[in-house]
UniProtKB/TrEMBL annotation:
Catalyzed reaction equations: a 2'-deoxyribonucleoside 5'-diphosphate + [thioredoxin]-disulfide + H2O = a ribonucleoside 5'-diphosphate + [thioredoxin]-dithiol
Pfam families (UniProt xref): Ribonuc_red_lgC, Ribonuc_red_lgN
Protein name in UniProt: Vitamin B12-dependent ribonucleotide reductase
Domain of life where this protein originates: Bacteria
Family per record: Belongs to the ribonucleoside diphosphate reductase class-2 family.
Transmembrane segments: none
Keyword Oxidoreductase recorded: yes
Keyword entries, A-Z: Cobalamin, Cobalt, Deoxyribonucleotide synthesis, Disulfide bond, DNA synthesis, Nucleotide-binding, Oxidoreductase
Length: 969
């Protein structure tokens, strides 16, 4: 299946554009009448050619257009604003300095509120901003001018956070921000935990780590927290002291490992803070002789000095694979070099075309002319070359490509220096010596630099490409990353509030299916990010980093059960490998639960009931004032695990007034050892109360949730279920008699006793995550006002068992994500002639109904649809049929019919469909896995679908529920 080498001015193969790519192109990058990639490319090429000499502009415009057509992807700001009349910057991100005073400039650092104004202007023009807040004096430090105590850097970060939010609401591009604090700042612990409760939501945060600190961590030594500002009286009394002749105050000391563990634990649980290795950054910096770097841009691929900018562009590597997937597949080095040389010139031109928000930024760029040429699509390119990402052969290929890009870009910058002049702060003797990046250039290239100078102080950066990859590169894998998934469904919110679904496919996977057919097995090279070890991700960065003069955006995604010890060691390995920083993402329920701006009404800190309203109309129901954010919660097993070798079960004989039955608790020992985990309950025996088996079946799903507090709440609800007569029953372990209000309460007490033995209820550990519990909109049953409320009721009559009763659902009004009111059942009850064990089932289902994600109650009800009882089947009408159609069917039990009726009510309310599946995905349960599709993961709130499922992927935001891609690249 040999392919002809395509024209370099066309896509590598004749694949029709993906609809989502066309949509993103129009929405984010096209201007005016532009409809295609070629239209956008022509505008950008024309705009950047205006820097050239008048007689050469047409020639360079043609070359620029050819480079764009052949795979050069300028960053998003360039694509969207170049050649337009928008007063917007073409630069994606900046770093802004922040001093310690309120308004005065000190050592080139503006006062806090001056810096705030400068940042607002930068964000207003479309640029993201990074800051180092380490100069701000610590909380409690002495402020001599006002005879008061300082409030600390975190308090001022909140001011910057609100300002960013305001600028965003005014209609500008979302203002991304990075906040950095040095590891030796006295407020570092407050900074580490600043986002634990959902604060600073418009910031990414990173700790600036020094070699001194890392060495202290290795030695388990003490580490001093210091600042130039004088401590307050209380801090001096606690031991803060001045270091003679240094101008430094030591506020306190602590063990370095203790601080390191705080950083790592927060990163493990909350995905922040990130880590920047400041000494590595500055040691490698080409301009360390004239600048010091203390922060990065928001996506962290560009460490920058004060007022520095990142002028970015990426080359799509998939365009340069000849004979993809074949044994003879190869990388077209000559074509790549041709595009890289022109791309270097184009990025240099951007610095002269762009609007600068601040004159200081323009001057900084003029004197150093930093640019950041990188590549994207590495993961897909390796697949097309038949190289598995996590192998040495793949790392060797990535290293070779990176080295070729380095040499090409630096050589092209020498040519530009000969033509246009070197950057003003170039000093050959200083630039090419020491441990700086440029000192490691090949000898012949170093000699050219020494002789002719360089146009640009820095030339290379591997940045996240986000939506530019989706719009311009057929969704090629992002930056240096492997593909995250081969396909997924993008649910995009439309202008009218509805959602439209798009299939989003990875470029290499799509191309392979195009060439070889949809049923052909994938090659071994097809491996996604989550199918390889964290060490393999770090190893790829380590292979490429020596050839990139600024930094690389890389997110190491690890699974939720990734061991903490390995996670912590990953960062130590990154420092030992000489990396400049590391970002990881581990999905977890803690992250989703703390990122809601308003706390959930059912949160563990303050269980609250609904607000009681005055009932003004006949159909007015209970109303809640706000809709809390859902929390991602995965079950250990979505259904009963397959256990070919069997599993142990604990058995207890329950003795009650009407006979005896056996209670079983199924248990499974975890792979890592420790106490067995209970995962199911069932009852057996002809004298078991009717309906108790259904209760056990739904309680089994609660045993499989990773939420001990939720299980405890369920057992608490069953403990007080009263029946006609209380009774005494022998209780484990010694058979002492205990009084119970009914058989449901007795059964629950035995289950609780066994769970306590297995430590399945969490004990006294308050740090155990409670994802399901936190996802409740109300812990207790919402209460009505004195006027009452209407409820939905339906009659059930089972002639086979003689049961005739009414099912009643109390309902509550919730504000939906688009402002509409959503009515939801919040409790269920029975009245009439029914098995009293169903009161226990009603209590369990009522709690399930108050989990904000309807997928939870839908799952519980579906499990009951096939619940059968001996001699309990009967005929009844099917609910939910089209108008005018009536049909009866046989139901296996009263419980099964009740479950179907409740599902029907949810369908009437537009919450579930008639099969019991949610009409709107809200992310509490992992979605069924499609081929190559990502599972739902816990994360930040998605601005598109409202679910707490936005993770950090490939250096960019990505929603695992709806496929939303954040603004990066």
């Amino acid at each position: 299946m040999t392919q002809k080498t395509p024209s370099r001015t066309k896509p590598i193969h004749a694949l029709a554009p993906q609809p989502i790519s066309e949509e993103v192109l129009i929405e984010k990058y096209s201007k005016g009448s532009e409809k295609t990639i070629v239209d956008v490319n022509q505008r950008v090429a024309h705009a950047l050619a205006q820097v050239e000499a008048p007689e050469q502009q047409k020639q360079w415009e043609t070359k620029f257009l050819q480079a764009l057509q052949n795979g050069f992807l300028p960053a998003g700001r360039i694509q969207s604003a170049a050649g337009t009349d928008l007063a917007a910057t073409l630069i994606n991100c900046f770093v802004q300095p922040v001093g310690d005073s309120i308004a005065h400039v000190e050592d080139g650092h503006p006062g806090i509120y001056t810096a705030l104004t400068e940042a607002a202007e930068t964000m207003r023009r479309g640029g993201g901003v990074g800051y180092d807040f380490s100069r701000i004096r610590p909380r409690g430090a002495w402020v001599g001018s006002t005879q008061s105590s300082a409030s600390g850097p975190v308090s001022y970060m909140r001011v910057f956070d609100r300002s960013c939010e305001t600028v965003e609401s005014a209609g500008a591009r979302r203002g991304a921000q990075m906040g950095v604090l040095r590891c030796d700042h006295p407020d570092i612990e407050e900074f580490i935990h600043a986002k634990d409760t959902g604060d600073l939501k418009n910031f990414n945060i990173s700790v600036g780590i020094t070699d001194t600190f890392m060495q202290a961590v290795q030695k388990d030594a003490a580490f001093a927290l210091v600042h130039r500002a004088e401590p307050g009286p209380a801090q001096k009394e606690a031991g803060a002291h001045h270091v003679t002749d240094s101008g430094i105050w030591v506020y306190r000391t602590l063990q370095a490992r203790e601080l390191w563990d705080q950083i790592m634990r927060s990163t493990y649980d909350h995905a922040e803070p990130g880590v920047l290795f400041l000494d590595h950054i500055n040691r490698d910096n080409n301009l360390s002789y004239c600048e010091t770097i203390a922060s990065t841009n928001p996506c962290a691929e560009q460490p920058l000095p004060p007022y520095g900018c990142c002028c970015l562009g990426s080359i799509d590597l998939t365009r340069f694979i000849k004979q993809p997937f074949e044994k003879a597949a190869s990388f077209d080095k000559a074509a790549f070099v041709e595009v890289a040389r022109v791309a270097t010139r184009m990025l240099d031109n951007v610095l002269d075309v762009t609007v600068w928000p601040l004159p200081q930024q323009q001057e900084e760029a003029r004197s150093k002319r930093r640019i950041g040429l990188g590549y994207t699509g590495l993961g897909d390119a390796l697949v097309m070359l038949n190289l598995r990402y996590d192998t040495q052969a793949a790392r060797d290929m990535a290293r070779d490509i990176s080295e070729l890009m380095r040499d090409t870009a630096y050589d092209a910058s020498v040519d530009l220096a000969q033509e246009r002049g070197a950057f003003p702060l170039f000093n050959a003797d200083l630039y090419l010596t020491g441990q700086r990046f440029a000192s490691r250039l090949p000898p012949a290239l170093k000699e050219r630099v020494r002789t002719h100078g360089l146009r640009n102080s820095h030339l290379l950066s591997i940045a996240p490409t986000g939506t530019i990859s989706l719009a311009f590169a057929d969704n090629a894998s992002n930056g240096i990353e492997p593909a995250f998934s081969w396909s997924y469904t993008r649910k995009k919110r439309m202008a009218d509030g509805s959602f439209k679904e798009y299939a989003v496919e990875d470029h290499a996977w799509r191309l392979y299916r195009h060439l070889y057919g949809k049923d052909t097995a994938l090659t071994p090279a097809f491996v996604t990010a989550l199918e390889m070890s964290a060490q393999a991700h770090e190893a790829m960065v380590a292979a490429v980093a020596p050839f990139i003069d600024t930094a690389i955006s890389k997110t190491v995604n690890v699974p939720v059960n990734y061991p903490y010890a390995d996670f912590q060691n990953l960062y130590m390995e990154a420092w030992q490998s000489g990396l400049k920083g590391l970002a990881t993402y581990r999905p977890n329920s803690v992250l989703g639960s703390v990122l809601s701006v308003t706390p959930a009404l059912g949160s563990s800190s303050a269980p609250a009931a609904a607000t009681a309203l005055q009932i003004d109309s006949a159909n007015q129901r209970l109303a809640l004032e706000r809709l809390p954010a859902a929390v991602l919660s995965s079950l250990r097993w979505p259904s009963r695990p397959e256990l070919p070798a069997g599993n142990p079960a604990w058995t207890f004989m329950v003795h009650h007034p009407f006979g005896d039955f056996a209670l079983f608790v199924g248990e499974l020992a975890p792979e890592e050892g420790g106490a067995p985990k209970p995962f199911e309950v069932w009852v057996n025996g002809t004298e078991q109360p009717r309906g108790l088996g259904a209760l056990a079946k739904t309680l089994s799903m609660d045993l499989r949730a990773n939420d001990p507090a939720w299980l405890q709440l369920k057992l608490d609800a069953l403990a007080t279920v009263a029946e006609e007569h209380s009774f005494e029953m022998p209780f484990p372990p010694h058979g002492q008699l205990r009084l119970f209000p009914g058989v449901v309460a007795a059964t629950a007490a035995v289950i609780r006793w066994r769970c306590d033995q297995l430590t399945a209820l969490g004990g006294n550990d308050t740090k155990v995550p409670t994802p399901v519990l936190d996802a409740m909109f109300s812990r207790g049953e919402p209460q009505t006002g004195p006027s009452g409320t209407l409820a939905w009721s339906v009659d059930v009559d089972n002639p086979a068992t003689g049961e005739a009763f009414t099912v009643t659902l109390k309902e509550v009004n919730l504000p939906g994500p688009d402002g509409a009111i959503v009515t939801r059942p919040c409790s269920v009850g029975f009245s009439g002639n029914y098995p009293r064990a169903l009161d226990g089932l009603a209590r369990l289902l009522s709690l399930d109904m108050r989990v904000i994600d309807p997928a939870w109650i839908g799952m519980k009800l579906r499990k009951l649809l096939n619940y059968a009882e001996p001699l309990g089947h009967f005929m009844a009408f099917v609910p939910g049929l089209p108008r005018g159609e009536r049909r009866q069917q046989t139901w296996p039990s009263t419980v099964a019919y009740v479950a179907r009726l409740i599902i029907h009510r949810y369908a009437m309310l537009g919450v579930l469909d008639e099969e019991g599946f949610p009409l709107r995905d809200m992310g509490v349960l992992d979605a069924p896995k499609n081929q190559g599709a990502p599972s739902t993961m816990a994360g930040k709130i998605c601005p598109e679908c409202g679910n707490p499922t936005v993770i950090h992927k490939d250096g960019c935001d990505f929603c695992t529920a709806c496929g939303y891609v954040g603004q990066c690249g």
